[in-house]
Write a structure and sequence with these properties.
Blueprint: H1 5-23, E1 26-36, E2 39-50, H2 53-73, E3 77-82, E4 86-91, E5 94-104
Antiparallel strand pairs: 1-2, 1-5, 3-4, 4-5
Length: 115
């Protein structure tokens, strides 16, 4: 039986994820997006590193609630929590969102670094 390249990649990713779950720390990332009629800005930042996926998930929920409180206190309009990991709002003519993501410390959501 011959494996297709996509099958090999899928199996490799599953093996990497299983290894990452067992041996590595977890990183809480935030993806900040701001879109206005004249620009789109996207920025990834590390929020914190945790010792397990479950601690990272708890930290994600806390950060989402805290972000919502800060935006409310700053007068943001139409604040909406989407999918349990993203918060978005309208600020003047821009739409701003922050998505929180827990990933093994071996995964960088920004993609590969250039040479």
């Amino acid at each position: 039986m011959r494996l297709r390249p996509a099958s090999v990649i899928a199996v490799s990713l599953l093996a990497c994820t299983a290894t990452a779950n067992a041996d590595s720390a977890w990183v809480l990332w935030q993806e900040f997006r701001s879109a206005s009629p004249s620009m789109l800005m996207v920025n990834w930042e590390i929020v914190t590193t945790t010792e397990s996926e479950s601690v990272c998930a708890d930290t994600l929920a806390t950060n989402l609630r805290n972000r919502q409180r800060v935006w409310q206190s700053n007068g943001a309009k139409d604040i909406e929590v989407v999918g349990g990991d993203t918060i978005r709002s309208s600020w003047q003519s821009a739409v701003t969102s922050v998505r929180f993501v827990c990933l093994p410390d071996t995964v960088d959501p920004r993609g590969p670094k250039g040479k």
